[in-house]
Amino acid sequence: MEPYHHGELAVQERAGVSERAAVVSAVVRTEIPAAAAVFLAEQPVLFIGAADARGNVWSSLLTGHPGFITVTGPSSVRVAATLSAGDPLYRTLAGPARLGMIAMDPGTRRRMRMNGTARPAPGGLEIELEQVYANCPKYIQKRVPTWQPGTPGDPREGTALTGADLALVATTDTFFVATADPDGNADTSHRGGNPGFLEALGPTRLRWPDYAGNSMFNTLGNLEVNPRAGLLIPDWTTGTLLHLTGTAAVDWDPDHAAALPGAQRVVDFTVECLVRVDHASPLRWSAPQFSRFNPPASTP
Fold this sequence. Notes:
It contains six helices and 17 strands. Strands 9, 10, 11, 12, 13, 14, 15 and 16 form an eight-stranded antiparallel beta sheet that branches. It is of the alpha+beta class. The radius of gyration is 18 Å and the shape is globular. Helices cover 16% and strands 40% of the residues. The mean pLDDT is 95. α1 packs across α5. The protein has helices at residues 6-15, 18-24, 34-41, 163-171, 218-225, 254-258, and strands at 45-51, 57-63, 69-73, 76-79, 97-105, 110-121, 124-135, 145-147, 156-158, 174-180, 186-192, 199-202, 205-210, 228-234, 241-251, 265-277, 283-285. It starts with 5 loop residues before the first helix and ends in a 15-residue tail after the last strand.
């Protein structure tokens, strides 16, 4: 089965990496390797993304003590966690949903991508996977989690970033981006860099550099055929989550990329709606050890 759709193939060709992408595609599986099952059982967080009933794409996370993600079959997992009612994907996961997921361990700089169909189950989700593959450790900041359970704040909805939101954007070194193809098949990916790599150009516009990666172009390939995207920007020290949904476009102008250190392309994101929940996650993370792969952030 071809692991890439026509949008991914088009972007790979434009980027000049079609041959490499074809070789890399061998890592995509439908079954969960034994080592991956062990890795999943050790994780306290799972980053997710999906399109809601309106087609808006959102990204969020599920948390639990290690063991909350369990492999239940060759291509199936159970996640013993649910979203709060204020989460933008709460209603979406109340029924069958095409879910993109990434399990990432900042402590060891390992990550694993999974895409499939989630269905609600008592206390969590049952997920049948269609794609399973490991990702390289580039741009992951090393952190160690601790638990600090508390009461999430009331969700704040809006259509533009506030001063507090802009401050979070300015200091973030990690965010997650969810995309989907026209059929709703979702993907969730990690983006990391030195603080300042994600830039706010205004209260409704963000941009970030697209660094060298694995040449698969899952995110950019989805954007080629469906501009809807969702960002999750976590505050690692407070557990606050900033969810954004809107549209993204890839800027292929080499002059624009040259203005951002390490960029091969630039992605522009327009905010349409946002949900901010203070103290939404019970996880708190240590100060980061920045990845040696991070290019310097651009300067004003």
